[in-house]
Amino acid sequence: MTAPAVSISGQDADALGGDDSILMRQRRDHARLDAMMNRYLSEDLPPGDRNTLWLDIVQLVFSHAFAEETVLWPLLRRVAPDGEELTRQVEEEHQAISELVARIERSPDDPRRAEWIQQAFALIRQDIRDEEDELLPQLRTAFDDRTLRRVGAAWETVRATAPTRPHPGVPRRPPGNALRGVPLSAFDRLRDLAPGSGPAARRASLAAAGAVAAGGAVVLAVRAARRHG
After folding, report:
1. pTM of the entire structure?
2. How do residues 177-226 score in pLDDT, each as one tens digit?
3. What does each C-alpha distance from 217 to 14, 161, 228 come to in angstroms?
4. What is the largest CA-CA distance in the chain?
5. Whether the bond into 175 is cis, omega within 30 of 0
6. 40-45 contacts: CB < 8 A, separation 24 or more?
C-alpha cells in the first residue's frame, strides 16, 4: 500500500531539498500570492494601488502556472502512479482560473468584477492547497535533493520568461502550450512594461528577447524532465 502524501506546507527547507529546490521555490511563490491576495482585499488599500497589485497577481499566477505545466506536471506523470489523474485535476483548475481572469480583464467596468475577483482568489487558494498537499509531495518522494534543485532551476528559468496573462485557448500541456504560449510571452511582457519606462524600440526588443529565452528555456526544461523521468 502506498503511504499517504505528506503536505509540503509545514516542512522546512532541509526536508524539502534546500532553499533552491523546486518545492521551496513553489512554496515561496504560493506564500507571496497569498500575501498579495490578502493585501488586495484589505479595506485601506488605495484604488490605484489595488489596480497595480491586481496586475502583479495576474502576472505571477500565469507565469507560475505555465512553468508548472511545462516542467513539473510532465515529470510528475512519469514518476507517480496517479500522476495523470492529479495533474488533470490541477490543469482543470488552471483553466478555470484562466477563463475567469480573462473575463475580468475584458470587463473592467462590470459591476460583478469584485465578485469575480473573489471567485478567482478562491480558485487560486484551492489550487495551492491541491498542489502542496497532493502533487508536490510526490516529487519529494521520487527525487533526491540534488534533482529537486535541478528541476527548480529549470522551472525558475521558464517562469521568468513565461506568458504573464490569461490565454484560455492555449493548451495546458507540452508541446502545445509552448508552441502557442511562448510567442505570446513577448506580447504579454510588452503590455506589462510601464508606459514611459523607456523608448518603444527598447521595450519591444526586451520583450522579443524574453520570448526567445522562453522558447530555449522550454526546450531545455522538457529535455531535463525527460532525463530525470
Report:
1. 0.85
2. 988 988 899 889 888 885 544 444 344 444 444 544 545 555 555 555 45
3. 27, 8, 16
4. 61
5. yes
6. 40/117, 40/121, 41/118, 41/121
